[in-house]
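Entry type: protein chain
Record version: 2
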Amino acid sequence: MLIGKPPRVPSGEITDEGMYLNRRSFLRAGIVAASVAATGWVYRKINPTPEGSQSSVPLADFAIPTTQPTAGQSAAGFTVDEPRTSFQDITHYNNFYEFSTDKESVADAASGFITHPWQVSVSGLCRKPRIFDLDDLFKIAPAEERIYRMRWDGFSLSMLLKRVEPLSDARYVAFQTLLDPARMPNQSSGILDWPYVEGLRMDEAMHPLTILASGIYGRQLPPQDGAPVRLVVPWKYGFKGIKSIVKIDLRAQQPPTTWSAAAPDEYGFYASVNPSVDHPRWSQATEQRIGVGRRDTLMFNGYAEEVAPLYAGMDLRANF
């Protein structure tokens, strides 16, 4: 599904670029002087419940577009018969708190972000821990195995994890974003507990739809969209799609995640799209797509057939 947002949307003009999700607009925070201990309060101040609406779903900053595979691309690609959001919108209306809490300011704030050289360490409960530079990282998947069907250029995370040979007691995968306030200026604020961290259960991480992406719409991933490498988990809310990754760690215990730490009553570890589980401050039964209008939210963002078996027997209200 595409995660909804309040009635105000940027551009309603739809072009032939890939479909992308926008989170609802944050109010400008002004001067943020709260401590890390008060992050939950700060979040509510800059991200209040939409006025006059109880049906906004403000959690994700992207959706996973599914497109008809072209010649030379995977025949397993999905298709979609929906309008697609413009490249201008997906690159100028972003959630990336390391640069700004104002979606429309992220692109400018990130414009000078240097992503080369870059390294990603993979460590923890594995036989072959390793530090990958970008060239090595994206040689893991040959061209014919790279993922284009969702308008992302990348490869299944499982291909990387198999390279380091996870141990049998590795049950979770933890991720960490770059910590560098000189390059990511909003990390100097106390709005979140930096660095940004996220996590997946091992079976979620090994699912073929979970990818590491370095490009979008046939172009290099822009800084505001998570360059040089980000996570894409299409059936989950967008805050699970950690950006500018520098560290991946295999663990036996469930790792902490940034938004679960900031507001545990609002953001659970799993964050799978479930229209029957409301956010404490709004309904998530419907969603708003730019230029399309409001529609019913789809279970697991429309990927139920592919991913529902991962959660068989789980209470999805408790494990939200």
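Comment: The two ends are 16 Å apart (CA to CA).
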